[in-house]
Design brief:
The complex is a heterodimer. Chain A contains 36 helices and 11 strands. Chain A is mainly α. The chains are: A mainly alpha, B mainly beta. Chain A: It catalyses: a di-trans,poly-cis-dolichyl diphosphooligosaccharide + L-asparaginyl-[protein] = N(4)-(oligosaccharide-(1->4)-N-acetyl-beta-D-glucosaminyl-(1->4)-N-acetyl-beta-D-glucosaminyl)-L-asparaginyl-[protein] + a di-trans,poly-cis-dolichyl diphosphate + H(+).
């Protein structure tokens, strides 16, 4: 009796120690998740990355400057000229509001950080949050050990790092946290049946809706899981509590977000949730009736209800189908459709297909992005089936669907990453559990077999310890629970007893000592490989801000800062209301960095407008001039990598311009730009290609740099070398020629002849004639 | 109608009589300038003039001040005016600075502005002395043609008078103008005028009466960088924890002839000798020695093209704006750095602390149109006073920095038309109690402490409404 109380005291101490240890491990995981993402700041600088983050940054600047009400009503006239864009109603405000409130809070504490700094570090902060959320979620599914492992894995998974390095200020940065946290609260509600968590779940879902269009994944996955539970006969009141408030509150809250609005009830993405909502009510009613009626009466009632119910359902379904079918896209948005039918986008919406992150991934990208997790996931799925609980079945469903989605679009690898981490966390934790237990059970035998005594004692001791350990695992949640929630304790006890049984069975599952120690060693090597890969990916592959490029040459680091050079030039040396035309990729950056009005930007909401710009770029000079002039464009910006070998330049994107332009304006035909189905810019290129505006603006006077006009990206000499521009003039080219800015010549100069002008204006005469003679040197 | 004109007449009469009284008091027509030598340096965008006047008191009474006159075009661009007098013989010759004050004179024609130089000892009748004056003028060179293309050189006009504008009779005078090169397109000839190499000489002229003026125009090539900082805000933040943080926000402009038409990178890169001669891409910044944590950035991030050279006497930062600046092009950027506090902060005899720092712009050979120096004193400092050796506008502000509660007192000094000659030390005196240094750490410690107390309370207090058995 005394001994048992002693072990009990020891147990509480161990519990407390385990709690503190777990807390510090979590703290370290958070710090690690934050700091592994700082490579970009240390290696480059604290700057916003890529394209979309610049838009988010600009929106945040507006929010912090003008306040929330102006933000909701913001009509942006500096983009999509002359249409403009209602930013407040078309943007997912979660990220902006998050960073805006962080900034506001800091500034009220007199910590004068700039908006840019706050934006740069939002993503790392939220990845720390995401790893903590992963811990919570996995702990609900498989206990603390798995939770910690999964959190550690998520903190450094390359796929997530690619979207959340410092400076990558994009929706996904906070959305992944929101996604995991929503799932956690769902599972938590499912495990506890608490309405409190159900409400929190709806709020968390609201945050997710605010943050990212990917919220549709949640609102489809959870109904699927509920349906699965119902079909497999796992319906319980807890399931009802977990689901019904989420749909009601979640939909209400979601429709508060301007960008979602009535879409929350009208588009097909949300139908599944309502369908399951009806089903769960029917099931709940059935269970209720079953409870109050005698079995015989119940059978009668079932037949009655089923006949009437089927009739009603058929009618409703018919109406629904008719409604949905009346819409051309069947009520689905283009991106969702391209998920369900991977070939859809390339057939009908070239804009979606033209984005590289919407392409299906290649196999190496799986290895690059989730690395060894890909091998651990199956083991995790197996572990989820031993035993299968509501929570683990949810995880299985999550991993299966996310594997499919990641196979359709590279971008959705991001959704797969948390699932893969959780699965691998479970797998690793279970494996370590089995191996260490078998070592633990056999080690004393190894040492004490010569003496022979105390053999039974020690094994008994072990059993006690193992039991203790499981108890600590289970009661980990206890300190955090409020005493007022003790009504749930009963339920937890049930769970514990169900888990204790397999634990006794596990005692039989003992592997040989040598095998298990070797396996542990291998697992550690495996994990170490993962860590090395992740750190490498964070440091080398994903930390480049893409607006600054660097190259290592024999005389040290060389920096290509051409984009900012061009944007800064535009910002300071053009009129504030000038319009700049470029391909849509550079729209966000131009508005944010150069503060000039653009024609199209990365939002791509108006296909016709983009097609107009695409048409202008693929037309000869004069029609292009006319198109641009009709849009009040004053400057045209092209990105050209031929001099330094920067591959993602406009010439390489040019076929998409032709395709998108041709989709709306049929006189632009893709075959005109291809020679025998091949895209080329050398001497064999088609005349249409060599005369189009994009070619001319890219290669204007390029031949004079090396005398041959050798393009280092296409690795060929250009087709048409000497030509002059009649409707455009070069006003700025950056140091490495990566950005070239041309000005539209004013129509007056074009109509009057040069001789006339020189006569009327004697001052400019000499310079004009000088230029003329310069040009005459060329054979053209 | 008649009434108003009568009133006007009375007013005019009063005014005239007032002037005549003033004239009796202040003007000193007894002074004669025996010789005047003027050396004008127009090689840089900043015009520097050295003037040597040998004045003689031809009157009967003692004279204690000498007047210098400037035409209104020069007066409004006058950045600094210094005068000194040479004392001692040959080798022991030292220049003693004299005080210069703006002055008024009724007989100055056409808005000519006068400055009076107070002599050290009054000049007795018949005595002569030599006064040296040095003054700097900005924005005086006017580019002509006002717009040039990339391949053209920049030509500027310099307008002045062949004779020195002076309220006195000048017996003999000579003016020389130094241009940056031999390339002088044209100049007004006022005999005798001669040109030797890059120097243009007007004079000697004899016996010109007061306020004689004969305008001349020199048209010459000047490809020196016409870098003008339109606005410079310097923030100097003192932390008694041992460092001085400086942030300089520049708005730079190429104020020369405007760039016209095409900018061809090809020509700029491959024909450097003939292309873009009037543009500039490098600027040199002189920073104090022992500078650390230097950054050079603008609103869209770091500018990667700069070089820092540090030695024990000075630090030099060579900066390159994002793009070469042609005429009329602008750029904004920020240079920030830290300095050890003990080099600049001292304690005066009366126990007050004072900051001793250089006024003016660290960019060499650059004029600043509008300079604001903000000295941010540590939180809790009181009674700030600034001692600047030339007139500036000053006022106080409050700045909030990291975790400030009451804010930091900030001394704001503003001056227009600043030239490198203004880079002389100024002082800001203030009272500071070192106990304030502990305010913020204590605040943080108490916040953390309160957090733990809150945690402990939360864990130990049962807030539930109903007790479950």
């Amino acid at each position: 009796m005394a001994a048992s109380s002693e072990t009990k005291g020891e147990g509480t101490l161990r519990k407390a120690f385990g709690g503190v240890l777990g807390f510090f491990i979590l703290l370290l995981i958070g710090a690690f998740a934050f700091s592994i993402r700082l490579f970009s700041v240390i290696k480059y600088e604290s700057v916003i990355h890529e394209f979309d983050p610049y838009f988010n940054y600009r929106v945040t600047q507006f929010l912090t400057k003008n306040g929330i009400y102006d933000f909701w009503n913001w009509f942006d006239d500096r983009t999509w000229y002359p249409l403009g864009r209602v930013i407040g109603g078309t943007v997912y405000p979660g990220l902006t509001l998050t960073a805006g409130s962080i900034w506001w809070l800091l500034n009220n504490l007199n910590i004068p950080l700039s908006v840019e700094t706050v934006c740069v570090f939002t993503a790392p902060i939220f990845s720390a949050n995401a790893s903590w959320a992963t811990y919570l979620l996995t702990k609900e599914v498989k206990g603390t050990g798995a939770g910690l492992t999964a959190a550690a894995l998520l903190a450094m998974v390359p796929s997530y790092i690619s979207r959340s390095v410092a400076g990558s200020y994009d929706n996904e940065a906070v959305a992944i946290f929101a996604l995991i946290f929503t799932f956690y609260l769902y599972i938590k509600t499912l495990n506890t049946g608490s309405l409190f968590y159900a409400t929190l779940n709806a709020l968390s879902y609201f945050y997710m809706v605010c943050s990212w269009g990917g919220y549709t994944f949640i609102i489809n996955l959870i109904p699927m899981h509920v349906l699965l539970c119902i079909v497999t006969g796992r319906y319980s009141p807890r399931l009802y509590i977990a689901y019904a408030p989420l749909v009601v509150l979640g939909t209400l809250l979601a429709s508060l977000v301007p960008v979602v609005g009535f879409n929350a009830v009208m588009t097909s993405e949300h139908f599944a949730s309502f369908l399951v909502f009806i089903i769960i009510h029917v099931v709940a009613l059935v269970y209720y009736i079953k409870g109050i009626l005698s079995p015989k009466m119940f059978k009668v009632a079932v037949t009655l209800v089923v006949t009437i119910g089927i009739a009603v359902c058929c009618a409703v379904l018919a109406i629904l189908i008719a409604l949905v079918a009346s819409s051309p896209t069947k009520g689905w948005s283009g991106r969702s459709l391209s998920l369900l039918d991977p070939t859809y986008a390339s057939k009908y919406i070239p804009i979606i297909a033209s984005v590289s992150e919407h392409q299906p991934p290649t196999w190496p990208s799986y290895f690059m992005d989730i690395n060894v997790l890909a091998f651990l996931v199956p083991a995790g799925i197996v572990a989820c089936f031993l035993p299968l609980s509501d929570a683990s079945s949810f995880m299985v469903l999550y991993i299966t669907t996310s594997v499919y989605f990641s196979g359709v679009m590279v971008r959705l690898m991001l959704v797969l990453a948390p699932a893969a981490c959780i699965m691998s966390g479970i797998a690793l934790s279970e494996a370590f559990d089995v191996f260490t237990r078998s070592i633990k059970l056999q080690l004393p035998k190894l040492f004490e077999s010569p003496s022979g005594s105390g053999d039974i004692d020690s094994t008994q001791d072990e059993v006690v310890k193992v039991d203790n350990k499981s108890a600590t695992d289970k009661s980990e949640t206890a300190p955090k629970e409020r005493p007022s929630k003790k009504n749930r304790k009963k339920e937890r006890e049930i769970v514990e007893t169900t888990i204790k049984k397999p634990l006794n069975a596990k005692r039989l599952l003992v592997l040989p000592l040598e095998a298990s120690s070797v396996a542990i060693l291998l697992l550690i090597i495996f994990g170490a490989f993962y860590v090395v890969h992740c750190v490498w990916a964070a440091a080398e592959a994903y930390s480049a801000p893409s607006i600054v490029l660097t190259s290592h040459s024999h005389d040290g680091l060389h920096v290509f800062d051409d984009f900012r050079e061009a944007y800064a030039w535009l910002r300071h040396n053009t009129d504030v209301d000038d319009k700049v035309a470029s391909w849509w990729d550079y729209g966000y950056q131009t508005t944010a960095m150069a503060n000039r009005t653009v024609i199209v930007d990365n939002n791509t909401w108006n296909n016709t407008h983009i097609a107009t710009v695409g048409t202008a770029m693929s037309s000869p000079e004069k029609p292009a001039w006319e198109i641009f002039n009709s849009l009040d464009v004053k400057y045209v910006l092209v990105v050209f990598g031929g001099l330094v070998g920067y591959p993602s330049d406009d010439i390489n994107k040019f076929l998409w311009m032709v395709r998108i332009g041709g989709g709306v304006f049929p006189h632009i035909r893709e075959p005109d730009y291809l020679r025998d189905g091949q895209y080329r810019i050398d001497a064999h290129a088609t005349p249409t290609m060599l005369n189009c505006l994009m070619y001319k603006l890219s290669y204007y006077r390029f031949v004079e740099t090396d005398g041959k006009g050798f393009d280092r990206v296409r690795r060929t000499e250009i087709g048409k070398k000497h030509f002059k521009l009649t409707h455009f003039e070069e006003v700025f080219t950056t140091h490495h020629w990566m950005v070239r800015i041309y000005k539209l010549k004013s129509p007056k100069n074009r109509i009057r002849g040069k001789s006339k002008k020189s006569k009327s204006n004697s001052k400019t005469g000499p310079s004009n004639s000088k230029r003329h003679s310069n040009l005459r040197k060329n054979p053209w | 109608m008649g009434r108003t004109s009568a009133a006007m007449a009375v007013f005019l009469f009063l005014l005239l009589s007032l002037f005549s009284i003033l004239q009796l008091v202040s003007s000193s027509p007894e002074i004669r300038v025996l010789s005047a030598e003027r050396r004008i340096d127009v090689t840089a965008p900043i015009t520097r003039v050295f003037l040597t006047l040998k004045v003689e008191n031809a009157g009967t009474s003692e004279v204690s001040e000498v007047l210098l006159a400037f035409p209104p075009t020069e007066a409004e661009h006058l950045a600094i005016l210094k005068a000194s007098v040479a004392e001692g013989k040959r080798k022991k010759k030292t220049y003693v600075p004299l005080s210069v004050n703006p002055s008024e004179s009724p007989d100055a024609p056409n808005g000519a502005r006068l400055y009076s130089v107070s002599l050290r000892s009054p000049l007795k009748s018949g005595e002569a002395t030599t006064v040296e004056a040095f003054y700097v003028l900005t924005h005086l060179l006017e580019p002509f043609p006002a717009e040039i293309s990339q391949s053209e050189a920049q030509l500027v006009y310099y307008r002045d008078s062949a004779t020195l504008l002076s309220p006195y009779h000048i017996v003999e005078q000579i003016t020389s103008i130094k241009t940056p090169s031999n390339k002088v397109e044209s100049f007004t000839s006022v005999d005798p005028t001669s040109r030797v190499g890059s120097e243009l000489r007007y004079g000697p002229y004899h016996d010109h009466g007061p306020y004689s003026y004969s305008p001349v125009i020199v048209h010459f090539e000047n490809n020196n960088p016409f870098a003008v900082v339109e606005e410079l805000v310097r923030e100097i933040e003192i932390s008694h924890w041992g460092s001085l943080q400086i942030r300089d926000h520049y708005k730079l402009k190429h104020a020369g002839a405007r760039h016209k038409g095409v900018f061809s990178r090809l020509e700029y890169q491959f024909k450097q000798s003939i292309s873009g001669v009037a543009s500039f891409r490098h600027l040199l910044t002189k920073l104090p020695p022992r500078v650390h944590s230097v950054y050079y950035r603008d609103e869209i991030g770091n500018i990667s093209s700069s070089h820092l050279r540090i030695d024990s006497h000075k630090s030099e930062l060579e900066i390159e704006p994002r793009y070469p600046l042609f005429g009329g092009w602008k750029a904004t950027f920020t240079i920030g750095y830290g300095l050890p506090l003990q080099d600049f902060l001292f304690e005066s005899h009366d126990g007050r602390r004072y900051l001793n720092f250089s006024f003016g712009c660290p960019l060499i050979e650059t004029m600043v149109d509008d300079l604001t120096v903000k000295v941010i004193l540590p939180e809790g400092s009181r009674n700030p006073t600034a001692a600047v050796p030339f007139p500036v506008d000053q006022h106080l502000e409050t700045t909030y920095s990291y975790l400030d509660v009451v804010g930091r007192t900030t001394v704001v000094l503003q001056k227009r038309n600043v030239v490198p000659e203004h880079n002389i030390p100024f002082q800001v005196y203030y009272d500071f109690n070192p106990i304030f240094m502990l305010a913020e750490p204590l605040m943080l410690i108490s916040a953390v402490f309160l957090f733990f107390v809150a945690c402990i309370t939360y864990v130990h207090v049962d807030l539930s409404i109903g007790k479950s058995s």
